[in-house]
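1st attempt posting a full record on here, be nice pls
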Amino acid sequence: MRLVPLFLTLAFVAGPVAAQHQHAQRPDPQNPEGENGKTPPTWKVRLDRPDAEAVIGADDEADIFFVNMTPGWHITTEPAAIFYHPASTAEDSYRAETTIHLFDPKGRNEAFGLLLGGRNLDGTDASYDYFLIRNNGQFLIKRRTGGDTSVIQDWTPSEAITTFGADSGSSVSNTLAVEVGDEVGFFINGTEVVRLPRAAVHTDGLVGLRINHALNVHVSDLSVKAR
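the predicted structure (as tokens):
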């Protein structure tokens, strides 16, 4: 059985390039697209390794369990994937933020976090940057271009990361944020962990989530706000 929480909050706000008429299309934590407990119909999920037989849905046997859970979304993965809403774009100066609750990773250190600068995500030349953490207390900033990846900031320890342990209860939460301006600041639970030149990061494009394989998480906040 999938483990799911019965709490939490989600606020997902489209960035400045989203047209006004897209407001009704943006994810709403209190009024999910489709039924609560069902997979949101307008979100898109892209697996790292394409698999036409992979099942994405609300069934316990799905390869990726992805459902509305008011307030918020619950995701349990077998394969690694990215999750995004087509209207959730950002450019210029903005702050993207997500709070993700990690359930028992059973000793695995698989990573999860924010996707930004997404382009052509439904094509063979998809590209995006991503800011991830894992349960050994490290963070990573990386880029995917088509089938290739390159490191922007290699795995780096940070005491700002809250890790799951024997005394953690059912889950632990971490808030990841990226502030884009003349430079790009990366934050974990309010602590800036690295600042990079804007030219080093792809920032304009879609904003979403990346969840690696074999993870059980609840997203309680995902927002993009102009600065």
